[in-house]
Protein 1
Amino acid sequence: MSERVKEVADNSFAREVLQANKPVLVDFWAEWCAPCRMLTPTIEAIAEEHSRVISVVKLNVDDNPATAATYGIKGIPTLILFAEGKEVERIVGAAGKDLIVRTIAKHARWESTEKQAA
C-alpha cells in the first residue's frame, strides 16, 4: 500500500476522518473483493497526486463492521468523501479515476497536477 494511504479502523475512524482538517476519501473494502483490489492502484494514485488537499484512507469492512454499519455500507467497494466531518459524496462500485477526481474536486480546493508540479 502507498505511504499516502492510511488504514483506519473502528477505533480510529473519528479521529482520522471526522476530525480531519481537510477532506478525506474513505475506501470501504475487503480483502476478498476483486473490484476492491482492482481499484487500489487508482486510490493510491489519487492519494499521491492530491495529498496536499485530501487525505485518503482505507477501512476493511470485515475487520471494522461497526463503522461499515454506521455508514450503511451494503456493497463494496464504496468510496465516501467526508468534508468537515460529514459525508458529502458517495460512489459505489469500481469507478474510474476521472469520476473519482471530479467528485472530490467539488469539495476540495486544488490546482491541477500540472500546476502542483510547477
Protein 2
Amino acid sequence: MRKKAVALRYNQKKENAPKVTAKGEANTAKKIIELAKEHDIPIQEDEDLVELLSAVELDAEIPPQMYKAVAEVFRFIYATTHPKDS
C-alpha cells in the first residue's frame, strides 16, 4: 500500500468544521509529513481515517459523519501540545 497523508486545519472562529488543506500519496505524502515535522505540527497515523479524508475535496470541510473521528485527532493534538503539569 502506498503511503498517504492528509493535512487538516480548523479555525473555530471562521469555519464550521475542519478543512482538508493538503492530501496526497507517495512523494506528496512524504512532503506533507516533512513540512508538518519542520513546523512542529503533531502527526497522528490512522490509515483508515486517511483513506476517508482522502475522498474529501481540497479546502472542503469534512462531512458531519467524520466529526467524531476527527475530534479524536484534535484531542490527540491538544494532548500532545498541551501536556498536563506533572
Protein 3
Amino acid sequence: MSRYILAIDQGTTSTRCIVFDHSANIITADQKEHLQIFPKPGWVEHDPIEIWNRTLDVISSALRKADLTAQDIAAVGITNQRETTVVWNRTTGKPYYNAIVWQDMRTDTYCGQLAADGGQDRLREKTGLPLATYFSGPKIHWLLENIPGLRADAEKGEAVFGNIDTWLIWNLTGGTRGGILVTDVSNASRTLLMDLQTLQWDEDILALMNIPRKMLPAISASSKVYGFAVQPLEGVPVAGDLGDQQAAIFGQTCFEPGEAKNTYGTGCFMLMNTGTTPVPSKSGLLTTLGYKIGEQKAVYCLEGSIAIAGALVQ
C-alpha cells in the first residue's frame, strides 16, 4: 500500500521535492536552484525547460535517497511561485519565450494605459486586485504582442498559458501525450483574469486585454485528482495545487476567519483567512482566493505583499 505524499515546491529561486508520511514527518527531500535571467533592467525571467528538468531531478533524487519508488507514493501535490507566466505550444511542448517572473516590471506602461480609463482599481471589484505588473494577465498580453506567431497560435488553441503550477501539472501528466491543462482557484486568482465570485475566467477582462479564451487552462479546486503522472511517478494521482502563499496559510492551519500567517521567503507575505466571502480592502490589501477543497465552498483571504525580503539578504 502507498504510504507517502510527495510535494513539489517550485519557488522563485529553487525547486524542492519533499516526501511526507501520514503524520507529516519528512522522509526525504531534495532541492536544486535554477538560473535567474535579467535581460534588461526591471526584467526577470526563468527558463521553463530548466525548471521542468530541475523538477524531474529533485523527484528522482529524493526517491533514490530513501529507496522509494512510485508505488510508495499515494499522491503528488504542487505548490508554486505565483504569477510567473509561461506560454508554450501544446503540440511541441516548447515554450515560446522564457517564463516572465512575478517580479518583472516590463508591463508597467501597459498597466498605466489600462488605468487611464477607470483608474488602477478598475478591475478590483471583480478580481480583488489592482492593475499592476505583478499579475499574469498583463504578462500574457505582452507575450501576445511581442512574440511573432504567438497570437495566431493562441487563437487556434495551439499556444497555451499557465502559471508554473499549470506548466508542471501538464508535463507531469504526459505533456504532449495528453497532459492535463489545469490550474486551481488560488493561482487563477493571481492572473487579473478570474472573477472572484464565479471562479471562472471573465470574458470582459479577456476582451479588454485581448487574450484568447482558448489558451487558458481549466480552473479547478485546490484539492482533487486532476490526472495521473507519467515517469518518474508513473500512475501516481496528481491531486493538489496551491500557490505558495496560499499553501503556507493552509499548511499553518489557518482554517478559521481571522487567523493569519506571515511568510519570509524571497518576498514577505501576510495572508488572513476571511472565510467563504471575499472581503474588499480599504487599505491597499489584495483580496484573493485562499483555497478550495473538492466541492466545498472556496475560502478567501486578504493579502499584504513585500516583493523583496529574503532575496535582499541573499
